[in-house]
Amino acid sequence: MLTYEDEIGELTFDKKDETKGALQVLNWAFETYDKDAIVYACSFGIEGIVLIDLLTKVESSATVVFLNTHLHFQETYDVINSVKEKYPYLVIKLIEPELSVEEQANQYGEKLWERNPSLCCHLRKVDPLRKTLQNKYAWISGLRKEQSLTREHIQFINQDHQFKKIKICPIAHWTWKEIWRYAHNNHLPYNKLHDQGYPSIGCFPCTSPTCQEEDLRSGRWKGKDKLECGLHENVRRS
Fold this sequence. Notes:
Elements: H1 4-8, H2 22-32, E1 38-41, H3 46-58, E2 63-67, H4 74-86, E3 91-95, H5 101-108, H6 112-115, H7 117-132, E4 138-140, E5 157-160, E6 165-168, H8 176-185, E7 235-237
Parallel strand pairs: 1-2, 1-4, 2-3, 4-6
Antiparallel strand pairs: 5-6, 5-7
Helix pairs in contact: 2-3, 3-8
């Protein structure tokens, strides 16, 4: 498996680089892998929109996948439509789970997300992404070190042992303020729920607004012993 260090060694970026190495990493990714062999799995939060803008500067017709659980806020679908209008060459694919919400209820009981949120995430997000990545070599993610303690170890290029792929995190070193500064300076569309106290936006049954002093992901699965949806487990440095 090709590793980041094999190709370009340790990456350092100029402090004057507004993208903090993101464009350099994306250029490396599309020089290393054919564009059909790499996808960006995006949740269309503000980090995702910033990363899409950076991505299109490198490959305007890159593929972006959205895990359509059918439990997302309408505002999320609204911003997807705005992104489609702004970046007409971008290939955006909505990835469907095997079971509809109704079929899942029939098989596992009503409101599985309340009783077993990890199983719900596995059925509606992890399995669909695994199938999407079957014929890919690498995938791009908008993870940032600052988001939570569970993500502070991520690097630009990671070996993803769960999906057995290379996982690329171009904005790993960005701060929340830098994300918003870039979005405003470049007039990017964004999910309006961010203006209502939702820094991290997932499925509506499992996402709550947060207080300013809380962790950026503290509104996800509030009151439950769960920190991640399952897409970002077992990720280590290449």
